[in-house]
Design a protein that fits this description.
It contains eight helices and 20 strands. It is of the alpha+beta class. The strands form four sheets. It has a nine-stranded antiparallel sheet. A five-stranded antiparallel sheet has the order 8-7-13-17-15. Strands 3-4-5-6 form a four-stranded antiparallel sheet, with no helix packed on it. Strand 1, helix 4 and strand 2 form a beta-alpha-beta unit.
């Protein structure tokens, strides 16, 4: 009889219990290995994807650019090529015919060469035309009727376009920026006897504040002017209607151009022999910094043919502040301007810088001096100029509705010296108008500072820059937005590893 031997039931249970922990540990190990390996693979793949496409992208971009340029070039030249194809064929045919003719008739070719040599010789013997300047009173007809002995080119000087009698503000022109109106003469001083036809209206006009239509330099006396001098040579020239009349003294208007809002006067100051000595340009333009000021760029150039050791300049005006003309308060502050050598309130003084100092109530600086019929005088001494050299400084004319606004206007342009003219009714507040006469680029610093309205944006800028940097780093790590094969594989490995780990951890234990 056969007997079957059975394994005891208790032993089988014991063997299953022993295998379960080992399986769970194997699953955990495999899952962790997959997850860790994937975490290593993903950044490596991303780094590789980021480092390679840069060059590829640039090459693609370059190829695209080249293709675009080539396409554009083809498009732009295709028409020309098709249009000139027939001409090119014709030219080739003509060239072939010419070559054949030349080879068949060498004598003709030699003759042509000799003719070319003769023509070159004739060109070399041509006389260079003489260039001359026509006399001031010469006409074109006179020049054409003359019989010069040799070829001559005659130059005619263009006369300055001066205002004509009957024009508004004649002999000056009235210019305005909508707030300030100036009557500017061709010789660069202010004032005119009649503003009819301009925004100032009938009557004297010089420096007008349009919001009140009050003037400040023309009532009673057209006393506003300037002068420039070489003190060593005793040569000077200047302009002031009240003192010197129309045209000034020792001045020739080289040019005078103007628009509704600008005017530029260029004059020549002559020496005792009538030869050019200094060129003086006054360019009147609206201030770009404030509507309450006109800016005058004054350029003095040495055209004497020799060095000049010292240049002096004077600007003078009689304040007549409406509505209390002939009875005003005057303020002068010369600041730290090193070029200023003298100031006073004598607005009736000569425009000649060599005439010496004078005053009415004070010299130097003063605040709210008056009331009286007086003005402002500024003398400047500038360094010498080599022949042909020049320098530029700035004058400001303007007005505001009160002293506070006038100071703000001076702060806006950084004025280095100034004078205020104010009515006798409100010298402190400066209403209804405070008139302004100021200077810049005269060796000083700004007297008034603009209010500090700057917003501190340092923190905001820094935050923006930091955000931009972080974004750039993130883009570099990911290598763009398109997924790569290595990246997907790594992600799948991570998921598989986590699944195995989770399954091993959650697998129920059998009894």
């Amino acid at each position: 009889m056969l007997h079957t031997r059975r394994r005891p039931q208790g032993r089988r249970i014991s063997s299953a219990h022993e295998r379960a922990p080992r399986l769970r540990l194997a699953a955990l190990g495999t899952g962790l290995a997959l997850a860790v390996g994937a975490l290593i693979i993903v950044p490596t793949a991303a780094y590789a994807d980021d480092s390679v496409p840069d060059a590829g992208d640039s090459e693609v971009a370059a190829d695209a650019t080249s293709t675009t340029e080539a396409t554009s070039a083809d498009a732009s030249t295709s028409t020309d090529e098709s249009a000139t194809a027939d001409d090119a064929v014709a030219d080739d045919t003509a060239s072939d015919d010419s070559a054949t003719a030349a080879s068949d008739d060498p004598v003709t070719e030699d003759a042509a060469t000799e003719d070319a040599v003769t023509e070159d010789a004739a060109t070399d013997e041509t006389t260079t035309p003489v260039v001359e300047t026509a006399a001031e009173d010469a006409t074109v007809e006179d020049v054409l009727a003359s019989d010069p002995e040799e070829p001559t080119i005659t130059l005619f000087a263009e006369a300055a376009a001066l205002p004509a009698e009957g024009d508004a503000c004649y002999p000056a022109v009235c210019i305005t920026n909508g707030t300030i109106l100036l009557a500017v003469n061709p010789t660069a001083e202010l004032n005119a006897t009649d503003g009819t036809g301009s925004l100032a209206g009938p009557g004297d006009v010089g420096l007008d504040y349009l919001p009140t239509n009050n003037d400040s330099t023309s009532p009673g006396c057209l006393c506003e002017g300037w002068g420039v001098a070489d003190p060593d040579a005793g040569i000077w020239g200047g302009a002031n209607l009240a003192e010197l009349g129309v045209g000034g003294r020792n001045l020739t208007v080289e040019s005078f151009t103007y628009t509704d809002s600008t005017a530029t006067s260029v004059v020549i100051v002559s020496d005792d022999d009538g030869d050019p000595y200094l060129r003086v340009t006054h360019e009147y333009i609206p201030s770009p910094a404030t509507p309450n000021l006109y800016q005058v760029n004054v350029t003095i150039q040495n055209v004497s043919g020799a060095a000049i050791a010292t240049i002096q300049y004077r600007r003078v005006m009689d304040w007549d502040i409406e509505p209390t003309a002939f009875n005003e308060y005057t303020t002068i502050d010369s600041g730290t301007a090193s070029a200023i050598t003298f100031t006073s309130d004598n607005g009736f003084a000569s425009s000649n810088p060599l005439s010496g100092p004078s005053s009415i109530l004070f010299t130097g600086d003063a605040v709210d001096s008056g009331p009286a019929d007086h003005g402002a005088l500024f003398d400047f001494t500038f360094p010498g100029l080599a022949d042909g050299a020049s320098f530029t400084f700035v004058i400001y004319y303007g007005a505001a509705g009160n002293e506070t606004d006038a100071i703000a206007a001076l702060a806006a342009v950084g004025a280095e010296a100034y004078s205020f003219g104010q009515t006798s009714t409100d010298p402190t507040g400066g209403t209804p108008n405070t008139f302004i006469f100021a200077f810049g680029n005269v060796g000083g610093t700004a007297i008034f500072s603009e209010p500090d309205t700057t917003v501190d944006t340092t923190t905001a800028v820094a935050t923006t820059e930091e955000s931009t940097a972080v974004t750039a780093v993130a883009l570099a790590v990911t290598g763009g937005t398109e997924p790569t094969f290595a990246g997907l594989a790594g992600a799948l490995l991570v998921i598989a590893g986590l699944v195995l780990v989770g399954a091993a951890a959650l697998r129920p234990r059998r009894a």
